Amino acid sequence: MATKVVIGAQWGDEGKGKIIDILAQQAEVVVRSQGGNNAGHTVEADGEQYKLHLTPSGILNPNTLCIIGNGVVIDPGVLLKELDMLNGRGISTDNLKIDARAHIIFPYHRALDEFSEKARGKGDIGTTKKGIGPAYMDKAERSGIRMCDLMNKALFIEKVKANAAFKNQIIEKIYGETGLNAEDIAEEYLAYAERLRKYVADTTILLYEAIKAGKKVLFEGAQGTLLDLDLGTYPYVTSSHPTSGGVCIGTGIGPTMIDECIGVVKAYTTRVGKGPFPTELLDAVGDQIRDKGNEYGTTTGRPRRCGWFDAVIVKYAVRTSGLTSIAVNKIDTLGDVPKLKICVGYKKDGELITEFPPSLEELAQCEPVYEEIDGWAGNIGGVRKYEDLPENAKNYIRRIEEICGVSVGMVGVGPGRDQNITKPIK
Ligand code: GDP
Ligand code: IMO
Ligand code: MG
Hints:
This protein is an alpha/beta fold. The chain has 3 domains: 3-99 and 199-260, 3-Layer(aba) Sandwich (Adenylosuccinate Synthetase, Chain A, domain 1), CATH 3.40.440.10; 103-196, Orthogonal Bundle (Adenylosuccinate Synthetase, subunit A, domain 2); 266-422, Alpha-Beta Complex (Adenylosuccinate Synthetase, Chain A, domain 3), CATH 3.90.170.10. Helices cover 34% and strands 20% of the residues. The strands form 5 sheets. A 10-stranded mixed β-sheet has the order 9-7-5-2-10-1-11-15-19-20, sandwiched between helices. Strands 14, 16, 17 and 18 form a 4-stranded mixed β-sheet that branches. α3 crosses α4, α3 (107-120) packs parallel to α6 and α6 (153-174) crosses α7. It starts with a strand and ends with a strand. The model has no long low-confidence stretch (mean pLDDT 97). The structure holds guanosine-5'-diphosphate, 6-O-phosphoryl inosine monophosphate and magnesium ion. Residues 8, 12-18, 40-42, 44, 293, 298, 329-330, 332-333, 412-415 line the site of guanosine-5'-diphosphate.
């Protein structure tokens, strides 16, 4: 199959970067379609660790064309720092292309992200404060500034001045904070423009031609299903569409051009930021998983909330993204937990619910219903063949497949590129 979508099937941080890096060894193009530097994708190869926020995780493969699609919001200063980091570590970024339609994050977006979170008080979303929501707000409001605008000096200055003047009114009059200087912003960004110019293109054409030529293309999702603006745990979501449907709009392709959709999950569940989390573990087992799995945010360093594997969530992802298989990462983290639990449904008002509810109030009342499964002892980080996994680990994977109604095609036993088991899809 030539085109594969890889999305997060939980609340993000499922290990998408690792899976993309592995699959990119056989791919000609890797494309990011949504989100921005709220994403933090970790890739570990040859003993080196890379934390990528905007650059597609195929960048370590020198033969892969990496595209930042039109649906991504770009903070150019962050992107350039990331490219400098990669170049400084001997990784070429000559194969990067940025879509001319992609919207730009400005300092006033970051400021507004921070002030609006502060104003929400206890009801804050727990955003990454990278300006993502405010940038997508401008896009939807039709006042956003795009990469193609940045390439046109006079037009860019005019647009930045108009937008900054308006945002300053909000910053000063609503939030009582100090506004930002439009001229300083324009100067800073025009310097970025000169460095970014060589990367900017109409990537929808590059992508169309690559797909038509039968090239292997990977679409790298950011965030995860439950952070989707429409399908996630609204309002505790991000402002883009991390489900497979977002790929078409965010890269300019049609749904008939996608062959496979792979959902990435952890062998348990984590979430950063606020909002209901039915299987959350607030006990010693939760702490054990956080410590062993090093569950701290790649972007913000915040401790991730940890809980049991929730099959209701993954079933929802299978349904809403049309997943053809899933990759289960971090099964190694569960070693030495004597009894594991998989959430197979929720109890609410004495009734069994097996579908993820749209209402957050309803979700907050849901008590998880668990199936208990025996764990396994020892470190499985060195296992490379599915049949060599402990029987109980295979049983755990089998139950995930059965309950979620989807085949597992890959199993992660460690963060390294080589710590991955390919499993035949049933
Ligand atoms: P992403 O945002 O989905 O790309 O995921 P992150 O990079 O934010 O978080 C996943 C973390 O788990 C990273 O630190 C990875 O290096 C690590 N990781 C990925 N797969 C595995 C695995 O199978 N086992 C272990 N122990 N760590 C893994
Ligand atoms: P990757 O791609 C996990 C969460 C934030 C917050 C909510 C809204 O690494 O999986 P935002 O800054 O987007 O407005 O914050 O979304 N969030 C993520 N959580 N992984 C991510 O990305 C995330 N990107 C955003 O923590 O709850
Ligand atoms: Mg992440």
